[in-house]
Amino acid sequence: MVFTGGGIILCILILSCLAPIAGDPCSVNMDERLSPPSFKHPFGTDQLGRDMLSRVLHGGRVSLIVAITISLLSMVVGCFVGAVSGYFGGVVDDVIGRIVDVFMSIPEIVLNIAMVGVFCAVYGVSTFIVIFAVVFTNWVGYARLMRGMVLSLKEREFVLCAKAIGAGEWYILFRHIIPNAAGPLIVLATLNIGNVIMTIASLGFLGLGIQPPIPEWGQILNSGKNYITTAPWISFFPGLFIALSVLGFNILGEGLNAES
Amino acid sequence: MLMRCVNVSKSFKVGRRRIEVLKGCSIAVDEGETVVLFGESGCGKTTLGRVLLMLVKPDAGRVFFKDTEITAPTREFRKSVQLIPQNPDEALNPRWRIYDSIAEPLRVHGLAETMNEEFDAVAAIAEKAGLKEEHLHRKPSELSGGELQRAVIARALILEPEFVVCDEPTSMLDVSVQAAIVRMLMDIQKRTGVSYLFITHDLELARAIADRMYVMSGGRVTGELRKEELRELSRESLIRCELPRVSARF
Amino acid sequence: MLKVENLVVRFKSRVGVVRAVDGVNFDVVSGERFVFVGESGSGKTVLAMALVRLLPNNATVTGRVIFDGVDLLKLSEKEMRKVRNCKIAYIPQNQASLNPLMKVGYQCAEPLVEQGLERGRIMRKVSELLEFFGIGHRFKDYPHKLSGGMRQRALLVMGLSREPEMIIADEPTKGLDAVKREQVVEAFQKLGRRTLMVITHDLPFAEKVADRIAVMYCGKIVEISPAREFFDCPLHPYSKGLLESLPERGMNPIKGFQPSLVNLPEGCRFRERCDLSTARCAEEPPLLEVDGSLVRCWLYADEMC
Amino acid sequence: MYVVRRAVQAVITLLGVSLISFSLLYIFPGDPAEFILSIRYGYEPSAEDVARLREELGLNRPLVTQYLDWLSRALRGDFGMSWTEPKAVMPLILERAQASAELFLATFLISIFFAFVLGILSSIYRDRWIDHLTRMFSMLGISIPSFWLGLVLIWIFSVNFHLLPAFGCCGIKHLVLPVLTWSFSFMAIKTRFIRASVIEELSKEYIVTARSKGLAESAVVLRHALRNALIPIVTYLSMSVSHLIVGSIMVEVVFSWEGLGTLLVKSVFERDFPVVQALVFLSGVVMISVNLVVDLLYTVIDPRVKYGE
Questions:
Q1: Per-residue confidence (pLDDT) for residue B238, from 0 to 100
Q2: Which of C85, C142, C162 sits opposite D303 (nearest CB)?
Q3: Total structural domains within chain A
Q4: Cβ-Cβ contacts under 8 Å, A98 against chain D
Q5: Is the pLDDT of residue D4 over 50?
């Protein structure tokens, strides 16, 4: 399973790296608008005559880079908060616990939509806002996992032994506890990247994600929605790529989970 | 007296209730002695052991090590007292090689200057604990319970402590392994003069190794028996909960 | 009553095929208390579960397990369920073996419900049995409120309630301290003359319960002796070593480590740890009969000639 | 006691949610009054107008007073007036709620039913063809974006075969495609979780006990394993209300279903922020109450909960 999932992701990564070969995703050619897949345009063209292959591959770059950035940022924030909360316990844990509860109680995408909407109304549209909004809700999963791991790990006898030896709190946290939480963390991160790709695409599809002219899968799908009767290929290919990359990360995550 | 505690009390919060685990316990261990702390499960003997090591802070009462009161554990104190916990599967970091786990105390206290020095120290103590060199390079999951407990003991003894709390170190092990481990602990005691506080619920084992024995029940130390007195007790009266009555004389 | 012939249990694992039980032969006579003694890794629990066919799917069992003239290994799953329900009660290791969401009394009654008995009779019978073992007041409690000793007794009631022809109890004293162990011993002594097979690592417990003792080492039976003889004068060097490592018998350890099941020594499996081993031990010793006992050791071969 | 403690926690969480919903509108830089007017008029408002509106909305008061005022009104279901339509926010939401509820209920019931059936079958026949099939199916379900699946289904059933209506609301025929789309992904996640939970329980020791009693495998799975597995499953289902809400937004947008999801997206685009604020707050309220009810249910289902941790 690890190989299947990794293989799918690798293929999409390579294809995305090769995107420039497929040409400029933004060059408009009104003579060839809405032309079906052909030898010249394997994925067809959109309503402005732009080559869909190039747009989809460039979209892959954007989606993957943004998703990985978001996932890493969330991981850093979430792990720190979760580890501190679990290890030191007491009032700190209570406060953080309530904050996590609050975030768990608002469906992520609702808050994402609202935040992107409000911030864009003030600052105008930017990719940075999308990243910020998604990280704002996404760190919670990492924090919960980390807190749970730390809570169970710190009761283990090897931590007690380390204390008996005279090791310090931060030493124990960084040398004993966090490395032992790494396995589940990697699994979560893999699955999370898949989820984030989906979230970004969803936002894009609603018109609230990364904005044109930067090509992004969800946003391309959205623009193809109105041509579903005449040019279904515009929506078909970006959707296929979203599904494939999310599938890749899910299979990889499940495989890693089974291994550990 | 090497180690002693006076009137130690401790309660834990479990859910909303507070449970008094220790209700004013006093025990003492002399140099080179093996003192057994005997009691049923749940009587507070593990907690008392941890209080002596200052791994659990008592609510009331005082702990003395070599006649100085210990309020906050110093590095010196941590070097001189050690713990051998109950479950060998849990006592070693599963991601570390056995070698690293045994060397950890040296590293924490910065006692080995060079890699060679460290290796020599680890190899020496591992040999005393009955481990072969091949064991050192494996992970805990690849060793049996008895081998793991030897590694745990090696780690506890590498700093040459003066006082070790053995918290049921053999209760998870088979009898033949138990015999080997206990023999080894006794041999090391003969050579180094370390003192043990040996926590157990097995009376036969207690009888076999104790210089002195404290009996605990319901968070209190209910009696103290000398070696000779222990021998005289019949096996039946030992098992039949008659100990508290026997020890009521004290 | 129960006759086991050449029973072999293999597990497929990452390191290769492990023979957890390797050619075991024994029989249990009706009304007897037969106790298997062995340390962890000797294959005794696997053996017990193999008899009632409760092992997971990655185990393959060969040989014959003849109970009342029927080979249990050849029965269909449905017939085997009937055997488990009415004839052989397997009592698993304690602690986590009770369903946490079901009241103790109901769990004990479940096999009877399966037998299709009438409700009032079931209730009477189960409460009588619980009463008999001193936990009658726990009928309506959930398992987490019971102590380890009580749970073990509840499991015993569960086994007894269906009035089986034979009981197989797996490690009944595991994880219990001295006092609770004593309660379990009492419970077993109350059983009367039922056919009983007990698996344990606890020698003092075995001494109190057993009529006959079988010692297992690394998947093989090394000795089968009447209990009194075994504790007075064990035959196999491993049995001797095991008894001598008890605290009350001098606590002299057996040298060396138990070999891993993946690469066992050729011939006698105890050879490398044995003080009395000779060149002959490189060959697998047969199970020899000596004064009503069976022992797998070359030391006794000469006496026969 | 457990009940009281849990209820207090829920109230604290609710306060947190209200704080976030409130800040959405009031903590960003700039003047809300100016913002409202510029939306309303479409051009730069005059200073007097802004001042008048500030007075009217109470924006001159300290932030804490404003928050408490907003909260007390929100708890009574009063979220103020919409900025774009001459209506109060609450009726606007209620108008749409029924359409969403229809879709929601149909999907929830269908997918839970199939998720249980498939999850249990898959755990009983582990590593057999039905398990492989179920796992493959659920893996696809969680990976395929529902909005894309919706478009594909529209293309197949509406554009090519003209079997079913693609857009619009109400009536069984209109329900088919959205429910199908939405159930597919929702069911997939649940099936995986149910399968995993039952398998986890099947590996526990008390299952050996149950088998040793001579129970049939179906009794072992249903009476023993499933009953214990229900505890994590019910928790998961209560948490997954958020999955449902997410799905509802995407599916409603694809099929132009006049429900709350489309309302949220429309309001964001029209910058009708009181509506957005109300929807965020209400979705939080729904989640908190569902979780609270489920946690309280545990005191009935799970005998261990009552007696502390």
A1: 55
A2: C142
A3: 1
A4: 9, 12-13, 16
A5: yes
Which structural domain, as residue segments, surrounds residue A178? 2-20+49-259
Q: Which of C55, C110, C140 to mutate to test the interface with D (most CBs of D within 10 A)?
A: C110
Least confident of B76-85, C204-213, C281-290: C281-290
The β-bridge partners of C35 are C198, C213
List CB contacts (< 8 A) between D284 and chain A: 102, 105-106
pLDDT beyond 60 at B248: no
Pairing of strands B17-29, B3-14: antiparallel
Beta bridge partners of C22: C8
Q: How far is B47 from chain C (nearest CA, A)?
A: 17
Range of the domain at C208: 2-96+166-304
CB C85 within 8 A of CB C127: no
What CATH number should be reported for the domain holding residue C219? 3.40.50.300
Residue A162, min C-alpha distance to chain B (Å): 8
State yes or no: pLDDT of B60 exceeds 70. Answer: yes
Q: Tokens for C171?
A: 């490690």
Q: How many CB atoms lie within 10 A of CB B127?
A: 12
Q: How far apart are CA D73 and CA B51, in angstroms?
A: 55
- Judge contact between A38 and A52, C-beta under 8 A: no
Q: What is the pLDDT of residue B199?
A: 93
Cα(D288)–Cα(D8) distance, integer angstroms: 12
Gyration radius of chain D's alpha carbons = 24
Instruction: Give the residue from C261, C260, C257, C222 showing the smallest Cα distance to C240.
Output: C222
Q: Which of B163, B154, B167, B157 is nearest to B195 (CA)?
A: B163
Instruction: Give the total residue count for chain B.
Output: 250
ipTM above 0.85 for this complex: no
**φ, ψ (nearest 5 deg) of residue B64:** -120, 135
Q: Tell me if B70 sits within 8 A of B130, measured CB to CB.
A: no
Residue A68: its pLDDT value, please? 92
Nearest beta carbon to residue D214 from set C81, C95, C99 = C81
How far CA C212 is from CA of A188, C3, C5, C228, D89, in Å, comes to 54, 15, 18, 8, 83
Q: Which CATH number fits domain B3-90+160-239: 2.130.10.10, 3.40.50.300, 4.10.220.20, 3.80.30.20?
A: 3.40.50.300
Tens digits of residue pLDDT in A146-202: 999 998 888 888 998 998 888 888 888 888 988 888 889 999 999 999 999 999 999
Q: At C198, which helix (H) or strand (E)? A: strand C195-200
CATH 1.10.1040.10 fits D95-272+284-301, yes or no: no
Nearest to B108 by CA among A84, A163, A173: A163
- C-alpha B7/C-alpha B59 separation (Å) is 10
Of C40, C179, C253, the CB nearest to B179: C253
For residue C166, which amino acid is it? M
Cβ of A228 under 8 Å from any chain B Cβ?
no
Secondary structure (3-state) at D196: helix
pLDDT higher than 80, residue B93: yes
